[in-house]
Specification:
This protein has four helices and nine strands. It is α+β, with helices and mostly antiparallel strands and about 180 residues long.
Length: about 180
């Protein structure tokens, strides 16, 4: 579960307005809206203190104006795989309060436990970066297609497969 907060305030006179969005986004903001010197910043609750600290010297009268519980999932079922076919990820929408749930991991051929753990971690990281809080997923790893034991190659395959699955599922939707 995530909590969406909107911080509002007025930019200080000595602040370069052109980089306020970049500073906020680099520190966890989701969206930054600016009209003249007024600014509104959407941020998930877990990142609020970091954003406040960074913006303290740039924004006057910074206050929280909205508090909303937000969850997200994929729009529909989808699947994706990397170009070499090493990793395939399938995703399905989940109801509110489900969480990120792995349905299964299937392995074809010989794959070490470490590789399975690395693939799952990378897939979950992609979901986290996509702000998915409720999703069902499964992973297929084809050991016979792994030509290199290089972990970077395997991590990249997992990232590509998970991202492709989200895209195939028509992206993410918010659950209110």
């Amino acid at each position: 579960m995530k909590y969406l907060l909107v911080l509002v305030g007025t930019l200080r006179d000595d602040v370069d307005v052109s980089n306020i969005s970049k500073v906020a986004m680099d520190n966890g903001a989701i969206h930054v809206y600016r009209v003249g010197r007024e600014v509104a910043i959407e941020v998930f609750g877990g990142d609020i203190e970091k954003i406040k600290e960074v913006l303290k010297s740039k924004v006057e009268k910074l206050s929280e104006v909205e508090f909303l519980k937000v969850e997200s999932t994929v729009a529909e079922s989808g699947k994706g795989k990397d170009s070499k076919g090493i990793v395939e990820v399938q995703v399905a929408p989940a109801a509110k309060n489900t969480g990120v749930k792995r349905l299964n991991i299937s392995v074809i051929g010989h794959v070490s436990k470490r590789i399975v753990e690395v693939v799952e971690k990378e897939v979950r990281n992609v979901f986290k970066k996509a702000l998915l809080t409720n999703i069902l997923y499964s992973i297929k790893i084809r050991g016979e297609r792994i030509r290199s034991k290089d972990i970077k190659v395997i991590k990249e395959a997992a990232k590509v497969a998970a991202t492709a699955a989200i895209v195939d599922a028509q992206g993410t939707v918010l659950l209110y």
